[in-house]
Amino acid sequence: MENIALIESFSEFKDDKLIDRVTLMAILEDVFRNALKKKYGSDDNFDIIINPDKGDMEIWRRRVIVADEDLDFENEEITLTEARRIEPDFEIGEEVSEEVKLIDLGRRAILALRQNLISKIHEHDNTNLYKQFKDLIGDIYTAEVHHVRPRAVILVDDEGNEIVLPKEKQIPSDFFRKGDNVRGIIENVELKGNKPQIIMSRTSEKFLEKLFEQEIPEVFDGLIMIKGVVRIPGEKAKVAVDSYDDRIDPVGACVGMKGSRIHGIVRELGNENIDVINYTTNTQLFITRALSPAKVSSIKINEETKRADVYLKLEEVSKAIGRGGHNIKLAGLLTGYELDVIREGNIAEEEDDVELTEFSDEIEAWVIEEFAKIGLDTARSILKQDVNDLVRRTDLEEETILDVIRILKDEFED
C-alpha cells in the first residue's frame, strides 16, 4: 500500500463519523507518529507532510551521514556507503532525507494503525458529544423512542445519538412505543468509561419551567418571571410567577383564556394539575396563596423553626390538604415552611365530635385512611362535606361514602 491517497483508504471513518478533513489529518499524524516511535524508538527526525486538499500524505526520515565504522544510531544516522547509493555526491556530515513507505512499517503495524485510528476517532467523537450535551443540560430536547426496556427507554435523536430516559425520570402515566417522539430536559451527562451517557428527565421541576418558557411568550421574553416550581410528577404542581410590569397579570397570562395557554403543558405532563399563583415577598400572603383553593382564616409564623400554623375553618381543611396530602405538601415546598393545619370550628360541635377511628368496627381501616388523606379524621368533618366533592377528592365509590355518612349520622341521632 502506498502513502498516496491514504486518506481515501480510511474514508469510511470520515463518512461514518462526519468528522471534518482537517481534524482527520491531525488524528492521522498523531497515529502515525505513535507508530514511528514504536518501530524506530523516536519520531523526532521524521517529517509527516499531509495534504488535506489532495487527500494524501508523505513520511520522510532525516538521517546524518557518518563514516561506515562510526554508525551508532541507525534511526538517526546513515553510513556514507549507503548514502552514496542514494546520491553519489553525498559527503560525511550532510543530511539525507528518505521517504518511508507505509508498507515499510509492516503488515502488523498497518493493522495496529487502523485500530488506533478507529480508537482515536471514537475518542474524538465522544469528547465532542460530551461537550455538546454538557452545554444542553437544563434545555428541552426531543428524541425518538428506539427501544423500550423495563428500567429505561432508549431514545435516538436526528444525529443518531443515544439518550436514556430512566424509569424514575418518567411521569407515572407515561407510555411509550417505538417511533414515538419524546420531550424532556437533558438532566445530566455521565461518562461511562470513555462513552458519554446522556440522561433525560420528564419529572424535573426544570422541565415544567422550560415548558412555560416554550408555551408562554411573556415568560420567554422575560416579562413574566418564574419564581418557584414544585411538582409531584403526574399529579400536581404549583408555579409561582411575578412581573415587574403592573399592567401584566402574570397568572392570567400563563393560564390564558379558559386555560388555553396552560392546556398544552398539562397534556404534555399527563394531565398534571398545575396551580399558578402570584409570587409575593409577604410570607403570610404567599402561604395563603400557595394553599389555594382553600380559604385561610389566619396564619401564625415561627421564623426560627420555619414553621407556620395555618388556621382554617373545618370545611376548608380538606381543600388545604388536598387529595393524598398533595396540596399542603407542595405549598410547604414552594414557600419553604412546614405547614401545620389548625382547625377552627364550633366549640360545642368539636367537643361533641368523634374520631373516625372510633368507628373501626363498622368502617374498614382503608376507608378511614382514605378520608384521613384529605384531612378528614372526625365524624363531623365528613358530615359537613358534599358527597360529590368527597367522590372527587378520594378514591372511594359514592356508595361507600353514603354508607359511611349513614353510619356517622346514626351515631349523632342516637
Describe the structure.
By secondary structure, the chain is an alpha/beta fold. The chain folds into 4 domains: 6-131, N Utilization Substance Protein A, Chain:P, domain 4 (2-Layer Sandwich), CATH 3.30.1480; 136-201, Nucleic acid-binding proteins (OB fold (Dihydrolipoamide Acetyltransferase, E2P)); 204-279, GMP Synthetase, Chain A, domain 3, CATH 3.30.300.20; 347-413, DNA polymerase, domain 1. The chain is 40% helix and 25% strand. The protein has helices spanning 6-9, 11-17, 21-40, 80-86, 107-134, 205-215, 217-220, 250-255, 260-268, 283-290, 314-321, 326-335, 347-352, 365-373, 379-383, 387-393, 398-413; strands spanning 46-51, 56-66, 77-79, 95-99, 140-148, 152-156, 162-166, 181-192, 195-201, 225-232, 236-242, 273-278, 298-302, 307-313, 338-344. The strands form 4 sheets. It has a 5-stranded mixed barrel with strand order 5-6-7-9-8. β8 and β9 form a beta hairpin. α3 packs across α5 (107-134) and α6 (205-215) runs antiparallel to α9 (260-268). It is elongated, with a radius of gyration of 37 Å. 25% of the residues are buried.
Give keywords.
OB fold (Dihydrolipoamide Acetyltransferase, E2P); 4-stranded mixed β-sheet; 414 residues; alpha/beta; transcription antitermination; N Utilization Substance Protein A, Chain:P, domain 4; disordered N terminus
